[in-house]
Amino acid sequence: MAAEAAPAAAPPPTAEERELSFVNARGERLAAVLVDTESQDLVVLCHGYTANMNNCQFPLLAQRLAEAGMSSLRFDHPCATYSTSERQGPFVMGNHEEEAQDMADAVAFAEQQLGKRVVCLLGHSKGGINVVLFAARFPSRVPKLVNLAGRFKCRDGTLQRFGADILQRLEAGPVVRKEAWGEWTMTLEDVMKRVNMDMEGLARSIPPATRMLCLHGTADKTIPWEESKECASLVPSAELQLIEGADHNFNGQAAGEEMARRVVAFVLS
């Protein structure tokens, strides 16, 4: 008797990608991209400092989530670079409370306007700080979190990026910085909001019911992977995973695919 043919593999879920926007609590309209599958489950993706929603392999990650049947929403904070999101006031870097609120606004938009169920919130780099802050400010709002190459030692990171004497320089007055994407003015008040972040206290306050994946590349020269290790050690239900040889933005096909694979596996677990 001939062997019975194996059942045909199910085709990958269809997904529609479209640009849209939503208004945050401060009245700023934020640009966003929805990748919509037939599933109601959705992952929100949040970028980091001097970045936007198309950095850090987010389009690839959205594609892999869609192939696994998951919808995703990625958006630009008001201080995103090369973005059409509205911003009230100057570019700043210590606006973590505001960006954590943007995350909450994105979750509410996905649930109330798109009819989705947000099952995971991901933040990269500065967004990793904001994910921890979000979990502390809005406990149990989202069941799973991904801290992707996130900063944890905010003071050390600030001094590393801008110079060990930056606080003394700012005490003498604002410092104008010229970047590839534009010019902005650094102030002591703004920087101290970042420097004074109590990351240990915030991490310890996250409820045990909230699961967190701390995912980091071992070749990250922007934020050492040990910062994710420390975060994972303090969040009650967190796990640390490292991707050997990956840099801060998971550049390259292999690193991007491995990052996406780990995130998708965590979301589906």
Automatic annotation (TrEMBL):
SUPFAM superfamilies: alpha/beta-Hydrolases (SSF53474)
UniProt GO MF annotations: hydrolase activity
Sequence ranges assigned to domain AB hydrolase-1 in this UniProt record: 42-150
Protein name per its UniProtKB record: Alpha beta-Hydrolases superfamily
Provenance organism: Micractinium conductrix
Origin organism lineage: Eukaryota, Viridiplantae, Chlorophyta, core chlorophytes, Trebouxiophyceae
